[in-house]
Amino acid sequence: MAEAARDGMELFLEAHPRYDPLTDCGRVRSLKNMLTTLRMVTRLPYPGGEDHGARLRACFKLVNRAGKLPESERAEALMALLEHINQLPGQPTLPTLSRLTEQLGILPIEQREAYLTKVLQAAQAVHDQVAQPDAVQGEDAALGVLSAESRLLQIAYIRNFIPSSMLLRAVANLAAGQPGPPAQVEATLLHEVTAGLQITGWFMARHKYVVEACASLANGRDVLNHMVDLSVTLPDPQMRWNSFSALANASSLFSRRKDTAFLLVRLANVLPQQPEAERYQGGELLLLEALQLDRRRFKAVCAAVRAQADAIPERSADFIAMCARTTALAGSRPASSWRCW
């Protein structure tokens, strides 16, 4: 039967020497049609010896047709297309993988994570094609090899194709395969995913969700510690302040008070990097969050905040007085109200 099929195909190509399966792509309505067309794209010779470009264009057209398939067949079809594109000569480009990532929205939610994982694995080959984002600078952000993955994750997250929990799992999986401390890699990826949002309203909401979700991770303290360092590299002052506020509010979500105190002290140390008009409010926010701590840890946070008074030269006296008032308020609380874990 296979021999008969080959003979039939040879006769067909003799009668249609310039046949291009692209002409039949519009008829794809099922997984079976898709796989049949993909086999033709793979096996047939293309005119002019332009096999690579023609095959890739054919795959793109098939990618666009995937949404016409029954929902239950779309994931398998896209996986087959991704596998074929990976087997083409050369490396898949970032625009190619971006187009594939954009198809997440046509898949059932329970199938998106497996498909996204495959796309991110293919992105390992395109690191050199992506320049380091301007917003990511300094030693802690010098992980530009992850930029390709962060761009794809940004597409998936910003377009609501994946929830925050799925984003964090994808980031953790990527970090596990990279050199360096996993928490640092995770923080850098998450920073890149959200820092690319130049519309501040989008950044504020998405960054807040990510930071709050990180607080529940087993290594959440370490991830947010690195995010503090990355937050001060944000080019827009309002974005820096939004990040600072989100991190301060997330400190209360830790299961251990010592982690809350650690993060609040770290944030106090970067208070001078916040917009000058927001520094007083930033110190006040940190002290309010510290009121949930035990006396010893509260005093440590208060001392770290008070030490930043020189960063508010026009209101330094008021700032010191505010620290004193908050300390007095804390001191008036009964011992039974202090949390010691």
Classify the beta-strand content into a percent band. under 5%
Report the end-to-end length measured between terminal Cα atoms: 74 Å
The largest pleated sheet is described as: none
Whole-number mean pLDDT:
85
Fraction of residues in helix: 55-70%
Number of domains: 2
Instruction: Determine the number of helices (DSSP H or I, runs of at least 4 residues).
Output: 16
Question: Which helices and strands occur, and which strands form pairs?
Answer:
Blueprint: H1 2-15, H2 31-43, H3 51-65, H4 71-87, H5 94-101, H6 109-122, H7 147-158, H8 164-176, H9 182-195, H10 200-214, H11 220-231, H12 237-250, H13 257-269, H14 279-290, H15 295-306, H16 316-331
Helix pairs in contact: 2-3, 2-4, 3-4, 4-6, 5-7, 7-8, 7-9, 8-9, 9-10, 9-11, 10-12, 11-12, 11-13, 12-14, 13-14, 13-15, 14-15, 14-16, 15-16
Question: Which descriptors apply to this entry?
Answer:
mainly alpha; 2 domains; 16 helices; single chain; 341 residues; 63% helix
Characterize the structure shown:
- It is a single chain.
- This protein is mainly alpha-helical and 341 residues long.
- It folds into two domains: 59-196; 228-341.
- Helix content is 63%, strand content 0%.
- It contains 16 helices and no strands.
- Helix 2 (31-43) runs parallel beside helix 4, helix 11 (220-231) packs antiparallel against helix 12 (237-250) and helix 15 (295-306) runs antiparallel to helix 16.
